[in-house]
TrEMBL record:
This is protein-serine/threonine phosphatase. It catalyses: O-phospho-L-seryl-[protein] + H2O = L-seryl-[protein] + phosphate. Residues 127-157 have a biased composition (Low complexity). InterPro entries: Bact_Sigma-Reg (IPR052016), GAF-like_dom_sf (IPR029016), HATPase_C_sf (IPR036890), HATPase_dom (IPR003594), PPM-type-like_dom_sf (IPR036457), PPM-type_phosphatase-like_dom (IPR001932).
Length: 739
């Protein structure tokens, strides 16, 4: 079956239609008149078929060829040679669209003119290019009767749009404007969408006032109602026909209106406090838009715009004040303005302004709620991750975190660095499945559990075992991957246990990058599996990179391809600084993230880089002391010798006093040898270990007490001090500045 040909005429609300006079004060609104008609029309016009003769072409019979006779058509039925214009002889009919001809009563059903026939300034209509069947003389004949308004029964004035046509334009404009407003996601985009949609199609200028501060959701605002000028937009004075409004010619002696010279943002008041019971409060409470010359608006607009409002508001019905009401309360107001030379607003334009205000207010409500949710997500994710990384002895740290997208700012990826006794540090990175608030909450619980287990100085495999049990207690479907490593700067060794996480990459000082071979393990939450730990060398100057799978896996590449690309990226970055100088940690993290392409951000990314500086053996002194009464004196003597060897004799008095007090407390309760270790780094650190798990507490000794003053002295003289419980006892440590 032949398909019916349909000719579409696009309509733009930001550019004038072809054939419209640029000086037309209605801008993008088309002005059309009712097409002329002749008696004898059929009840329904015939449809042009794809196989029919195109307009302006001769019929096949006229060219000496016999016309085709489709099935169901009478051979002697006349062919339709004109377009679908609603005029004919009453015998045009197709096989599928044939209708019985109505009696000629002299009347017909009016049809709006096609979009391709704009009305000229003199009220005449020009036929569309290539159209046939429309009599130009009939279109321009002033004696041709126009279709009366079906509501009033009166015909339109020459050159004016028909009510039906103007209503259709308003509906199309409102549809396009609301779609543009709805595209905005944040507050500024929605307000800008309102301004761009209305200027210059509906108004020449607009002022948007919003409540300051904007209430969120069901919050009940406190304090007075204050409106702040959020945005203004207007047609520039130097306009061209592309904007849809060309300036009218004016005499040279005539000066522009004051509001044309003034910038709206400088003339209108920036802040307005709405007085309770005032004129502006009444208009806002009424919700409906009003004209500026209405009694209620005459007093409300000066209160809103301030002293410069007279320069902004033109005379007549050329300004509309529209309250912006959200779901529960008024959140602002919009003022639509037209230039004095343009025709004023009409009553139906109040309905347009009401639609624009309603959609904008609801969009602003959604934007405010979205901003609040994004803020909560950001705060939740920020508090779940370390605010700052520690500065443990012998290792430097750097980290990065990237959410999966702007609309999914929370996720289950986390990283952590936990100082451990003996100047060691635990490096943790993990990934909980999902990108929801639930994933972030589970991640926070697992991170807290890992910190608690690390404080007990458990081996890495034991930490993962307890994390697996905790994940099962949280739920049967709580799955996560985790990698837990402990670095010892004294022995230059690192112990790693893995639970289904991508393996770390070690960048050596010479520029060689290698993927460490660690047991893969099962993810946390599976249950019933063992985790293995492996101990590897951690040479000084090397960099260990821990990451989540979002860095190396995406829809465009598998995880092992991404790991190999990461290894190559690290090696290439190290070559830039030479074999003897490792790349800076912060710059290295940025370079690693630069390997991500446009389609590689399917998951959030956590990145933790550790540069191993280590502690040289010459900066470490270590002794075992038997738990006897002579142990404190021996400890003082050993400490004095070590300080003399390091050139720190100035610290001898303080160190001997504090070592004596701590060793005395350890010997009093210990049953096994006590350990004493001195570390020389940027500070002097002293560590005393015993086999008693009870931690000492600082207390204020009474005047009659014989003991209880040792920790008081440590607290007063040491830079820092602390006590950490171990699986075999505890360690009490303190630090002193070297200078």
């Amino acid at each position: 079956m032949d398909s019916t040909r349909v000719t579409e005429h696009p309509t733009s609300y930001e550019r004038p239609q072809p054939g419209v006079d640029p000086a037309d004060p209605r801008g993008a609104l088309l002005r059309t008149s009712t097409p002329a008609h002749t008696p004898g029309t059929t009840a329904l016009p015939a449809q042009a078929r794809g196989g029919d003769t195109p307009p302006g072409a001769a019929a096949p019979c006229a060219q000496g060829r016999k016309p085709d006779t489709p099935q169901g058509r009478a051979p002697d039925a006349p062919q339709s040679t004109g377009p679908d214009t609603g005029t004919g002889t009453g015998t045009d009919a197709g096989p599928e669209h044939a209708q019985p001809a109505a009696e000629d009563t002299g009347t017909h059903r009016p049809r709006p003119a096609p979009d391709a026939i704009p009305v000229q300034p003199d009220g005449s209509a020009q036929p569309a290019e290539g159209a046939s069947g429309a009599d130009p003389a009939a279109a321009t004949d002033p004696n041709t009767p126009a279709t009366p308004d079906r509501r009033t029964g009166q015909g339109p004035s020459p050159g004016q749009p028909t009510p039906m046509r103007r209503d259709g334009d308003r509906l199309r404009f409102v549809g396009a404007a609301t779609r543009r407003i709805a595209r905005g996601l944040d507050l500024d985009e929605i307000v800008m969408g309102l301004c761009r949609a209305t200027v210059p199609t509906f108004s020449d200028a607009i002022l948007v006032y919003l409540r300051d501060p904007l209430p969120v959701g069901d919050e009940r605002p406190t304090g007075p109602l204050v409106l702040r000028l959020r945005r203004t937009d207007r047609i520039p004075v130097e306009r061209d026909s592309e904007a849809g409004f060309a300036p009218l010619p004016q005499p040279a002696a005539q000066q522009p209106e004051p509001w044309e010279l003034a910038e709206l943002s400088t003339v209108a008041a920036e802040l307005c406090e709405v007085r309770t019971g005032g004129a502006l409060a009444e208009v806002l409470r009424g919700v409906r838009p009003v004209f500026a010359d209405a009694p209620a608006a005459r007093a409300a607009l000066p209160e809103l715009l301030g002293a410069g409002g007279d320069l902004v508001i033109p005379s007549g019905q050329r300004a509309i004040l529209a309250p912006l009401r959200g779901r529960r309360r008024v959140i602002g107001a919009a003022v639509f303005l037209r230039r004095p030379e343009r025709i004023p607003f009409e009553t139906d334009d109040l309905l347009v302004a009401a639609q624009l205000a309603t959609h904008s207010a609801l969009g602003i409500d959604k934007a405010v709620l979205y901003d609040r949710e994004a803020y909560i997500a950001d705060e939740l994710q920020r508090t779940m991750l370390p605010e700052t990384l520690p500065r443990p002895t012998g290792v430097r740290l750097a980290s990065r975190y990237l959410p999966a997208a702007e609309t999914a700012r929370v996720g289950g990826d986390w990283y952590d660095a936990i100082p451990l006794p003996g100047s060691r540090v635990a490096l943790v990175v993990g990934d909980v499945m999902g990108h929801s608030m639930t994933s972030a909450a589970i991640m926070g619980q697992l991170r807290t559990t890992a910190q608690t287990l690390a404080g007990l100085d458990l081996p890495p495999q034991e930490v993962l075992h307890h994390l697996d049990e905790q994940a099962q207690r949280l739920g049967t479907d709580r799955m996560a991957t985790c990698l837990y490593a402990v670095y010892d700067p004294v022995s230059h060794r690192i112990t790693i246990a893995n639970a289904g996480h991508p393996p770390p990459v070690l960048l050596h000082l010479g520029g060689r990058a290698e993927v460490l071979r660690v047991p893969p393990g099962a993810p946390i939450g599976v249950g019933g599996v063992d985790f293995e730990a492996v101990e590897l060398d951690a040479p000084a100057g090397a960099t260990l990179l821990l990451y989540t799978d979002g860095l190396v896996e995406s829809r465009l590449r598998d995880v092992w391809t991404g790991i190999e690309q990461l290894r190559e990226k690290l090696a290439a970055t190290a070559q830039l600084t030479g074999p003897d100088h490792p790349p800076p940690l912060e710059a290295l993290c940025d370079e690693v993230l630069d390997m991500l392409g446009p389609g590689d951000r399917d998951d959030d990314i956590a990145l933790l880089a550790a540069r191993f500086d280590g502690i040289a053996p010459s900066d470490v002194a270590y002794w075992f002391l038997e738990p006897e009464d002579a142990a404190p004196g021996k400890a003082r003597k050993l400490a004095r010798r070590a300080l003399a060897r390091w050139g720190l004799e100035d610290l001898s008095d303080s160190v001997e006093l504090l070592v004596s007090e701590v060793v005395t407390n350890a010997v009093r309760y210990a049953s096994r040898p006590v350990t004493l270790r001195l570390l020389r780094t940027d500070v002097l650190r002293c560590e005393v270990g015993d086999d008693v798990p009870q931690l000492p507490r600082l207390r204020q000794a009474r005047a009659t007490d014989e003991g209880g003053r040792g920790l008081y002295l440590v607290n007063r003289l040491a830079r820092r001090w602390g006590a950490t419980r171990l699986s075999t006892g505890k360690v009490v440590w303190f630090e002193l500045n070297r200078t």
